[in-house]
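Q: Sequence in, structure out?
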Amino acid sequence: MRYRRFGPTGLRVSELVLGAMTFGEQGGVGASPEECRRILDAYADAGGNMIDTAINYRGGASEQIVGELLAGRRDRFVLATKYTVTRDATDPNGGGNHRKNLRLSLETSLRRLRTDHVDVYWVHLWDRHTPVEETMRALDDAVTAGTVLYVGISDAPAWVVARANTLAQWRGWTGFAGLQVPYSLLQRDAERELLPMAAAFGMAVTAWSPLGGGVLSGKYASAGAPGPTRLDPGSIDPHDRAIARVVQAVADEIGATAAQVALAWTRVRSPAVLPMIGARTVAQLVDNLGCLEVSLEPEQVRRLEAATGFAPGFPTEFIEQTTPWVLGAAAI
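A: Exactly. Output:
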């Protein structure tokens, strides 16, 4: 496992992030506390050091399990959690990105995680009702207090993140060092605005659902997926299934698994992208870790991307097409 700086900071994180959304058996199929320990131990043994959870994962069980598992070794990990999602659906102030929810959510998470600080605190979702100035100032106060070391934002428009970071620069507040977005061969929307924006600010990008909700894991490449699966194979879009078949074909060529190829592709796009691997078993985790040994040839990358049929659209394509018109002989 190699390590990369977390955006423009000096913090070093492993090139694969362990997602703890599967930690706990509440609310659906997940991992038992015992299996979670085995998963975390295997991840740590491979050199992984960043674990990502949220206040709402598994009704809070994820944070509790992570806190228990990190006892005695907390400082060896980069611990990240998120706030925004409501703590109490009956409380009008139970959710959102405002100062009150931030404070109460952070207190709750610290208690569950059995720590006095989190290394990375994510805004989980853009809250259209809270001024971005309030959120950034409240986050900066948490950093000043020492209960948060770095901040990031997940699932927000590029213009919101850019405005927030510009505001932070102007006022001397702590800016977002990381961006968290869904990113896979099935969902490349982040390439339109979010990834270029992150690159401009030097932000790290943690990619959630890099296996497309499991579709790219290899289980669903054919119509009849054997054994019990999380998804109904018949519900998978034919276009997504076609992409999965190309992923499987490339995997067969190089002697890797489909999941390893799908994860390797996310790493090809940019060194700033850190795929988040979420596993319910140690076997799944070990398979995912194998992506670090996968090297894709340029022709294979082109085949994978051609299968998606993705187009960046306006304004990216328009700007590229008109570059010779704008720059003339200086166009590259």
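Residues 83 and 102 are 7 Å apart (CA to CA).
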